[in-house]
Design goal:
The chain contains 15 helices and twelve strands. By secondary structure, it is an alpha/beta fold. It has two domains: 2-131 and 298-314, Rossmann fold; 134-295 and 335-339, Dihydrodipicolinate Reductase, domain 2 (2-Layer Sandwich). α1 crosses α15 (299-314). It is globular. The N and C termini lie far apart (58 Å).
Length: 340
């Protein structure tokens, strides 16, 4: 049986979850004639406390040791600086890369796109974690002309708002979310809408334009940091719910991507599907309305998509390609959402 040598970058929440799930799914790899083995785990501090299943002997700060004789690189360290350099170095050597790094994909796409077109970049875990949206948009849904899509792509904000619906103030709700580990280390990435904007940029390149500009999305992003209980209660009195929604819609000047808090009817599909989860509502000219919902964060949930991408690669499928060319925005009136 041949060995599949995996270089792992990062052993945080998702990286640790990947190590555990890889071991649990070992038989899946063996059925393909391969024994998965980590060449090393690149970390900032090998002495940091980690779950018992993460092998201490593989933790290192030496990138050369991790990359030595690797067949594939799994990047779960996050960020756009060091992670970006390491990913680009690996791709430049012809190594396939599996990543969950939505910020890197959104902000450094100009350097990654060519490798994605070659099929070397796998990134299902970058949007909605283990709930599949990358594969449908890069596969079956391409038989449609996209009309619009809307998503609740950041469950942390939904949790904060739900606790405000229970009567907490914004600061109290945010503090609780942080204590439970639901919010990024930098809370502005979540509550400021940046996390959702990164993910929307990735989706836009799969659905309507392979070169959709990150700056365009960022400039049209507003978070929930200005939300108060009075607004939440006023929406409820009208039978509405406030949610942070990422949208891609057609307009007179082409496609518009935006992230902002909106009011939705309590019976809206996004509200019903995403009370504690992420959800994507897609509308196409042939398929009509498609709703995809499920877990959008967490160690095991995200790791499942990473392992799935590894298996996809081993089964001979290329990585997820962006749309080959931009498509014009259709003459279509998208769903109206009342902004806060």
């Amino acid at each position: 049986m041949e060995t599949l040598r995996i270089a792992l970058l990062g052993a945080g929440t998702v990286g640790s979850g990947f190590v555990k799930l890889l071991d649990e799914q070992r038989d899946r790899f063996r059925k393909l004639g391969l024994e998965p083995a980590l060449t090393g785990i690149l970390v900032r501090d090998p002495r940091k406390a980690r779950p018992a299943w993460v092998p201490e002997g593989l933790l290192t700060t030496d990138i050369n040791r991790v990359f030595e004789e690797a067949d594939v690189v799994v990047e779960l360290m996050g960020g756009t600086g060091k992670a970006g350099k390491l990913v680009l170095d690996a791709l430049g050597e012809g190594l396939p890369v599996v990543t969950a790094n939505k910020a890197l994909l959104a902000e450094r796409w100009d350097l990654l796109k060519a490798h994605a077109m070659e099929g070397l970049l796998y990134y299902e875990a970058s949007v909605m974690a283990g709930t599949p949206v990358i594969e449908p948009l890069s596969g079956a849904l391409r038989g449609n002309r996209t009309l619009e899509l809307h998503g609740i792509l950041n469950g942390s904000t939904s949790y904060v708002i739900s606790r405000m619906e229970d009567g907490l103030g914004f600061s109290e709700a945010l503090e609780e979310a942080q204590s439970k580990g639901f919010v990024e280390e930098d809370p502005f990435l979540d509550i400021g809408g940046i996390d959702a904007a990164h993910k929307l940029t990735v989706l836009a390149r799969l659905a309507v334009d392979p070169d959709y500009d990150w700056e365009n999305v960022r400039d049209n992003t507003r978070g929930i940091q200005g939300l108060n209980r009075e607004q939440v209660f006023a929406a409820e009195a009208r039978g509405m719910r406030i949610r942070l929604v990422a949208s891609l819609t057609p307009g007179d000047d082409g496609w518009r991507a935006q992230v902002r808090p909106v009011m939705l009817p309590a019976t809206h599909p996004l509200v019903l599907a995403a009370q504690t989860r992420n959800a994507l509502l897609y509308r196409g000219d042939a398929v009509g309305e498609v709703l995809i919902s499920g877990g959008g964060a967490g160690s095991a949930v995200t790791a499942s998509a990473v392992v799935g991408d590894l298996l996809r690669m081993l089964e001979g499928y290329p990585g997820h390609p962006p749309l080959p060319a931009a498509v014009p925005a259709p003459e279509y009136k998208p769903e109206h959402m009342e902004e806060i």
